[in-house]
Amino acid sequence: MQKVLPLDRIREVETSLDKRVIAYIAEREIHTFESFPDFNIIAFEWYDISNEKTETSQMLLYLDSEDFFVFCENDMSLEKALKIFNERETNEQAFVEFLSRLLKDDMMHLDETEDRIIQADDDILLDSRKNHLKEIIAFRKELLNLKRYYEQFISIFEDLEENENGLLSKEEIRRLETLSNRTARFLANVVNMQDRVSQIREAYQSQIDIEQNQIMKVFTVVTVIFLPLTLLAGWYGMNLRMPEYEWDLGYPMVILVSISIGLGLFLCFKKKKWF
Questions:
Q1: In a shared domain, residues 49 and 172
Q2: What is the share, in percent, of the chain residues with pLDDT greater than 70?
Q3: How far apart are CA 241 and CA 226, in angstroms?
Q4: Distance of alpha carbon 22 from alpha carbon 27, whole angstroms
């Protein structure tokens, strides 16, 4: 028998399952891969990479010489499983084909993700003033989920290739090896994209630092220009009798000196290209 069912309807095929499987699932002791003398259990977190949402859903595959079942945790994974499930002549063929079809379109979606990252990189270079931090964090979270997703499959394929209970033929083992190599390429692609996102984040942070330094430079120049003027204002604000008070041109001269100091400092900074 070959069938796809929600996990909560596992009792419908209870007579076809080993009693240890029911207890195994009931106790929630579900690991990535378990090989028994008569059957295999594979559990993994399915991740819909075509969807920007980062939710995962558990799938559980049961394989023995007479049956192949796919159990799904929720409607999202059930819809995916029903879409790619094909009954085949043997259970092992249906099992390997299900895994293959599960990862079939991943490269296309990974290319789309890479295009989005490249576009984000261009946008950051063109407009660093816009807050891109949330976008960068979203990419990092998405790629981390993808990395974990493919790592679990590589581990599953390596265990299946050992074929300790002999449930898989040599032909299906070869197909699993091909599938494992393909998944390794997916993982390498994801790691490369993680490096790209890290570089984007560093470049974005550098641009922010440069802009902040530029702002601080302007504040520093303004402060330096007004510091002598503040000193003059402090001198003449003291309750003391200054000699200049009795000079008719004293007041205009102070104004002229203040303007000269400010203009001189401005021209000095302009020459040094601080403006």
A1: yes
A2: 82
A3: 24
A4: 9
Q: Both 253 and 175 in a single domain?
A: no
Return d(Cα 133, Cα 201) in angstroms, integer: 8
**Confidence check: pLDDT of 234 > 80:** no
β pairing state of 2-6 and 39-47: unpaired
- Residue-wise pLDDT for 38-60, tens only, equals 888 888 888 887 776 667 788 88
Q: How far apart are CA 250 and CA 263, in angstroms?
A: 20
Residue 240's domain comprises: 213-271
Based on the domain organization, do 88 and 224 belong to the same domain?
no
Distance CA 118, CA 125 (A): 11
Total tally of structural domains belonging to the chain: 2
Domain containing residue 158: CATH number: 1.20.58.340
**What is the reported pLDDT for 274?**
63
Q: What is the band of 184 on the pLDDT scale with cuts at 50, 70, 90?
A: very high
